[in-house]
Amino acid sequence: MPAYAPPAQLAAAPVTDTFRPKRATVLSYGLGADSTAILLMYLADPTAHGLEPDLSDLIVVYAVTGDEWEDSLSYCDRLVLPLLRERRVRLVQVCRAGKTDAEGVLVLDDSRTPQRIPQAGLWRLSDELRAAGTVPMLASGQRRCSIRFKGWVLDHWAAAEFGATSYRRVIGYHYDEMGRAEKDSKIQRKHNTEAGRTICEPHYPLILAKMKRAAVEAIVYEQTARRSKSPTARSAPSAGSAPPATGTRSGCANTRTSPPTSCSWSSCPRP
């Protein structure tokens, strides 16, 4: 192509990676083995997974439902958060700001040096269940509680964070959960079509690596067991000493995201 080319030729020319805008990668973190395995893979070799070497384009997002197992909180505080601090990976911890959707979401912490996983936000899943006099709803794989306390929260945070900018959404389905991933992708394609743009593209690293649950657990155990023997890990504070949750409302606090402009976090990784 000549040094100067008319607009028509420029429009038809292929876009090289040099000029292609870099998309953020958002990992939905659920404190469990699946999403932890993906995080460890990203930390070990960022470029192999399409990330910048310094992980500046990775955002780890944790939807705080409340009532999490204490050993899960302690595990993450002692063994996972130090890794994020070392590499200065951004961790966003967000929850529902109240019982009603109109109250929006609350960002409890947004940091590249996270210190604690909060035990609860302002409105816990157990608060909702007690108020409704019901139990977690898992019939027909619908996971309605996850949608309200994980998917809905993550949708609202993402809408405020990215606006009309597309991003890559990572969920920790393993190889035996192909059906869940296919359902999730189908929902997202529908949202993208209705919006007339690519809101986000779902990505399932464990499925691409053909990793089943046993392999996932083996990797997590192997890598975190080594760290658990280090003085730093042993001296880390326990989850029981975590301070009460505080935070600031996100820009989408009073905005309900409609399906055409939402990203489908239909079934987040199990805790």
TrEMBL record:
Residues 225-271 are annotated as: Disordered. Residues 230-248, 255-271 have a biased composition (Low complexity). This is Phosphoadenosine phosphosulphate reductase domain-containing protein. It comes from the Bacteria.
